[in-house]
Design brief:
By secondary structure, this protein is α/β, with parallel strands linked by helices. It has 14 helices and 14 strands.
């Protein structure tokens, strides 16, 4: 289940949810698929007014901090100002850039992304501004740069703190004048590009140490959007966990419905130095190892099983026949006991016995 934003014929934003399911014939062979699209615009508006949105353009979270991020993205979407996205690695800076672009009036134009730390100075200059044939050894033909490709849209410059002083000067001119020259050429090229940058390093400290131009810093930081680390919004961990369970269930074609209470407790107690990306990778790791319907402690990466002091967390793994597992399976199958028994890998008779043993009653 995913919510996406699209526009109707009157160019108004509509929020829709999309679900898909395979169609199987009587022999279990794939024979097609069903796609269901629901208009959830009114629900989205209600959640926004109540400040209870759990997702927004790929960003997941219902915490107060994330509600503020969602509102700020909406305010920034249609203005041309430069935006500096800051935050630790793995907090979702690229997703924020996507949301700003696709939520705004430039969504019809291109979104061009550049990882500035991945390229040397000369290669980055050529990538950003392009070059003409013969500009340097190996330049056997003209090349259009990323700024020119982003004309009419948005360019996202990630790891902006790592660019050299020479690139900083050229970037400052582009932002000020929306004009540049390709490498080896003196003819100015004019563009209409919105600039969004991101950094996981403190840029102001680089300014104070003379590693980053102060004038460029303030040009980039017209608006700063600071993403909180996952350890500061732990109330979002259950929502993120459920999201990744859904995501990897489709990718791995496994019907894993939940994590055990012990796993949730470990998740809530862990500091997540790698932030949301680390949580995603931990759940993907668990999907590879898990062969039943519940992710247990034994399926987690080793580093997750250590508390901040480095001591191993010893937790008794949950069992498929636990009360929690049975409740989750019944809820997942709308209290259809036959389906719940299949999910749990037990007979219907065993399930009935467990229901009586744990005194589980239907909510009806």
């Amino acid at each position: 289940l995913n919510r996406i934003v699209c526009r109707d014929q009157q160019h108004n934003d509509r929020v829709v949810s999309v679900t898909t399911a395979p169609l199987l014939d009587r022999n279990g062979a794939f024979s097609g698929a069903v796609l269901v699209v629901r208009d959830e615009t009114r629900l989205e508006l209600l959640e926004r007014d109540l400040k209870e949105r759990q997702q927004f353009h790929g960003l997941i979270g219902r915490s107060r901090a994330m509600q503020q991020i969602y509102a700020l993205i909406e305010n920034l979407a249609d203005v041309p100002s430069t935006v500096l996205i800051t935050g630790e690695s793995g907090t979702g800076k690229e997703l924020v850039a996507d949301a700003i672009h696709y939520r705004g009036n430039r969504s019809h134009g291109p979104l061009v992304k550049v990882n500035c730390a991945a390229l040397s100075e000369n290669l980055l200059e050529s990538e950003l501004f392009g070059h003409v044939k013969g500009a340097f050894t190996g330049a056997d033909k003209d090349k259009i740069g990323r700024f020119q490709r982003a004309d009419g849209g948005t360019i996202f410059l990630d790891e902006i703190a790592d660019i050299s002083p020479r690139i900083q000067i050229r970037l400052l001119r582009v932002i000020q004048e929306m004009e540049f020259e390709r490498v080896g050429d003196s003819t100015p090229v004019r563009v209409d590009v919105r600039v969004i940058t991101a950094s996981n390093q403190p840029l102001l400290e680089k300014v104070r140490s003379s590693e980053f131009r102060e004038d460029l810093y303030y040009r980039l930081k017209v608006m700063e959007l600071a993403l909180p680390p996952l350890r500061d919004r732990k109330e979002d961990i259950p929502v993120l966990t459920d999201h990744f369970l859904q995501k990897f269930s489709g990718r791995f074609r496994k019907n894993i419905i939940a994590v055990t209470d012990d796993v949730r407790n470990i998740f809530m107690g862990y500091n997540w130095p790698g932030n949301v990306r680390e949580l995603e990778h931990a759940i993907e790791h668990a999907f590879i190892l898990c062969q039943n319907n519940l992710i247990g402690v034994e399926h987690l990466p080793r580093e997750i099983l250590k508390n901040p002091c480095g001591d191993t967390v010893v937790v008794e793994p949950d069992r498929e026949g636990s009360r929690e597992a049975i409740l989750r399976a019944l809820e997942k199958t709308a209290w259809n006991k036959a389906k719940a028994a299949r999910l749990l890998g037990m007979s219907r008779r065993t399930l009935y016995r467990k229901i009586q043993e744990f005194k589980i009653s239907s909510p009806e």
